[in-house]
Amino acid sequence: MRLKTSLNLLLGIALSTSVFAQEKNLIAPGASLQKISSQFIFTEGPAADKNGTIYFTDQPNDKIWKYDTDGKLTLWMDKTGRSNGLYFDKKGNLISCADEKNELWSISPDKKVTVLMSDVAGKKLNGPNDLWIDAKGGIYFTDPYYQRNYWQRQKPEIEEQKVYYLPKGKKQPTVVDDQLVKPNGIIGSADGNYLFVADIQANKTYKYQINKDGSLSNRQLFVNQGSDGMTLDAEGNLYITGKGVFIYNAKGEKIQHIPVPAGWVGNVCFGGKDRKMLFITASESVYTLQMINKGN
Questions:
Q1: CA atoms of 87 and 92, how far apart (whole Å)
Q2: First-to-last CA distance in the chain?
């Protein structure tokens, strides 16, 4: 009886040590969540330029805001095509999921708009939501259907909610996954080898291998949790959003949860002069948090 008790005690210690070993505090020493503003309706799509300045959307108000590396918040663009997810290309153009007319836009630094694509074989996209750009300039984007009050249509023209890849210079995308319920957040690894896509309705996040032609293979369940938006840090940890920010290591183990005082966290990205500032879009607010690791 005493032997069994001792074994159970040792097993309990081992298990608790194992769980503890998976936990990790990635917040910089002494740092805390800083609210920048709460003047918005619903913030989304943060993206950092090459200097670390953050651009993000307030989609219901049809605006893009800028938060620079000196901590100054300014309105950057009005009438943005109802921009949602954003990402910078190598030339400094802001690529936007503009779902007012279900298009992908390229917005130049002087705010000149170029429509990159507007349909798939003559059918309107559901509503481009989030995107990631590979080293070749190709765009991976998710296309879930969320009925908008500024649309005249009441149902989608494309039944499936898919993940697409738009090669650089092309007007028509290829489907890279059509087996998700409602794809949303998306991010690729720095080496260009892997893509992460969240199926927000199925509450799952998947990891894919990126092939040389832009297609995807070897889809694997990464975590049993969906996400609105997501980002990666330089150590390969994945940050996903919802009721706060959840951080998973490269093995898919949850290592930290960052509570955020908001009903919903829509998205995250890294920015700032040293790329260690986590920028969090949380419903009507935006927050910053200094982290130990740099962004991807």
A1: 10
A2: 53
